[in-house]
TrEMBL record:
It comes from the Eukaryota. One of its GO terms (cellular component) is membrane. Keywords: Membrane, Phosphate transport, Transmembrane, Transmembrane helix, Transport. This is Phosphate transporter. It is a multi-pass membrane protein. Signal peptide: none annotated. One of its GO terms (molecular function) is phosphate transmembrane transporter activity. InterPro entries: Phos_transporter. Its main location: membrane. Belongs to the inorganic phosphate transporter (PiT) (TC 2.A.20) family. The chain crosses the membrane at residues 114-134, 146-164, 185-204, 224-248, 255-278, 284-303, 315-339, 409-428, 463-483, 550-570. Residues 82-98 have a biased composition (Basic and acidic residues).
């Protein structure tokens, strides 16, 4: 067919493209389109270059290589004027699509055969690596070695599900905003999660010492306690897998808590549970999302008030980035890094880290976006006066976003900042949440090896690496499901919205942990994403998705408890035959 045919085929899409670009349809512009099928092109694939409407070559990738709602500079933030009611051009794989072909293959834009090969390699490694680990080879008795091998597999199953569900805390908003493609996010998170697990998770106490169960109740009942620990891993892993399948972001810590509570109540009585810990966990269902939503709402409103309404939004964004990085890096360094024990020296060290981070980010932004900053022109005074007459600009006012080069600069700046914050969160998550799998695993191994109950457990390096491998494996195989929920299904995200949500969630978790408040990172991030949506209008948040997520939170502890009791009963029967 001729090019003119395709021009006619795309006539309906011109209006859609003009809407995304906040332009009126104009048929006097020239249309340059290659000879491809009209059904393969979405309006988001069209953009004006000068007076010409062209197809963007970069958009001809598999739609699931990026779950982004960020189209390109020139369109996206203008959705705010309509409160984000429009749908994105990139949607997550539907259940029907995943039935027809591998969801993993769609997500990473690879063939189904390649996805199957990767899964087989991961399964083979999971079954064979434990045979060479010291925890298995050190046991002299064949039964103990077999139980150690099974224990490592239980721990891997839990770690796999942590990777499939919880890593979305770090990378979901970056993928949803388009700052990273799904493939880039998974590869980056894989390196950082594994590094964090290996470098930061060395000394972890057993689950029995974390204030969930009263350890004295199980004195002299080592095999029952061993069965309970394995059941907790299996129960939490089971519920996480169900939640990940449906794309529900749930707390891995709450899964473990629910499993241990169920085991303790049935096999130790009401006196075996620290009920104050349960009260703190349930209160976090309200405190975490509420604080996350409040802080992200304020952060996003600050961006719109002080960046979007500036005479030169691009310059304002470039100037604000080092300040935000300085505040964030200083706070993270002071709260998380092993600094000096002397308070004033530790503060100076944290300030130095923040200064270094701010200088580096400023140089990167100037190097990568300097040519755009030089070309960007301030908003014409006439347009500013007209905007100010129509809207009384205040902190809570609905301010229209920038356009053209200014929007490209703003998205570029906040895209870099969001990637940086995602890397910090991913590294910290690997070091912290690996304990949800490795803590009970190490406690169970210590029982098999005869370590005294109640003593602190130091996790061997190979076990830490094993947990990190499990997280990476789960992230690669199923992580895209929950990433799609956080990044796409709650509300539409752009780099500015994604940064506001991620920065708010990290800040709340950081300071709440220091103050001892019961905070869940998963719940906080979901609340932060909702807060960004509320800042654009209540209709911008998808109520159906929120209801599903809240329902999954409410049933996490009861379901974990039920599975733990069931699995403990089964394991005690099996251990009775084996031992």
């Amino acid at each position: 067919m001729t090019t003119s045919y395709y021009c006619l085929s795309f006539a309906r899409n011109v209006a859609g493209a003009a809407k995304l670009e906040n332009l009126k349809p104009s048929y006097t512009r020239h249309i340059h389109l290659p000879k491809i099928r009209a059904s393969k092109v979405h309006p988001g694939s069209l953009s004006f270059v000068g007076d010409e409407l062209r197809l963007k070559p970069s958009t001809f990738r598999h739609p699931f290589a990026s779950l982004s709602s960020f189209a390109e500079a020139g369109g996206g933030e203008e959705e705010d004027n309509e409160h984000g009611r429009g749908k994105s051009s990139h949607e997550a794989p539907s259940k029907g699509d995943e039935d027809n072909s591998s969801g993993m293959a769609q997500a990473f834009n690879i063939s189904s055969r390649t996805a199957t090969a990767i899964s087989v390699v991961i399964a083979f490694a999971a079954l064979s690596f434990p045979l060479f680990m010291q925890s298995v080879s050190a046991g002299l008795d064949l039964k103990i070695r077999a139980l150690s091998y099974a224990t490592l597999l239980f721990g891997f199953y839990m770690a796999w599900n942590i990777g499939a569900n919880d890593v979305a805390n770090a990378m979901g908003t970056s993928v949803g905003s388009g700052a990273l493609t799904l493939r880039q996010a998974v590869l980056t998170a894989a390196v950082l999660e594994f590094s964090g697990a290996l470098l930061m998770g060395r000394h972890v106490t057993s689950t029995m010492q974390k204030g969930i169960l009263v350890a004295e109740v199980f004195q002299g009942k080592d095999m029952l306690l061993f069965a309970g620990l394995l059941s907790a891993l299996a129960a939490a892993g089971t519920w996480l897998q169900v939640a990940s399948y449906y794309g529900w972001p749930v707390s891995t810590t709450h899964c473990i808590v629910g499993a241990m509570v169920g085991f303790g109540l049935v096999y130790g009585g009401t006196g075996a549970v620290f009920w104050s810990s349960i009260a703190r966990v349930t209160s976090s269902w309200v405190i975490s999302p509420a604080l996350g939503a409040l802080v992200s709402f304020l952060v996003y409103k600050c961006i719109r008030r002080f960046v979007y309404s500036a005479p030169n939004p691009g310059q304002a964004a470039a100037a604000s980035a080092p300040i935000a990085v300085f505040v964030g890096v200083t706070g993270i360094s002071f709260a998380s890094f092993p600094l000096s024990q002397t308070p004033h020296i530790a503060i100076l060290q944290a300030l130095a880290c923040g200064t270094v981070g701010a200088v580096l980010v400023n140089r990167v932004i100037r190097r990568q976006l300097g040519h755009l900053l030089d070309q960007a022109e301030p908003t014409p005074p006439a347009e500013k006066e007209e905007a100010h007459q129509t809207k009384n600009i205040g902190f809570l006012s609905d301010i229209a976003g920038p356009k053209g080069t200014q929007l490209e600069i703003v998205y570029g700046v906040f895209g870099y900042m969001q990637i940086l914050s995602a890397c910090f969160m991913s590294f910290a998550h690997g070091g912290n949440d690996v304990s949800n799998a490795i803590g009970p695993l190490s406690a169970a191994l210590s029982i098999l090896q005869g370590v005294a109950s109640g003593s602190e457990i130091v996790i061997p390096l190979d076990v830490l690496a094993w947990g990190g491998f499990g997280i990476v494996a789960g992230l690669m195989m199923w992580g895209y499901r929950v990433i799609a929920t956080i990044g796409k299904k709650i509300t539409e995200l752009t780099p500015t919205r994604g940064f506001a949500a991620e920065f708010a969630a990290a800040s709340v978790v950081l300071f709440a942990s220091k103050l001892g408040l019961p905070i869940s990172a998963t719940h906080t991030l979901v609340g932060a994403v909702m807060g960004v949506g509320f800042a654009r209008g209540f209709n911008s948040v998808r109520a159906e998705t929120v209801r599903e997520i809240v329902a999954s939170w409410a049933v996490t502890i009861p379901v974990g408890a039920f599975f733990a009791v069931l699995y403990t009963w089964i394991l005690t029967k099996l251990l009775g035959y084996i031992l």
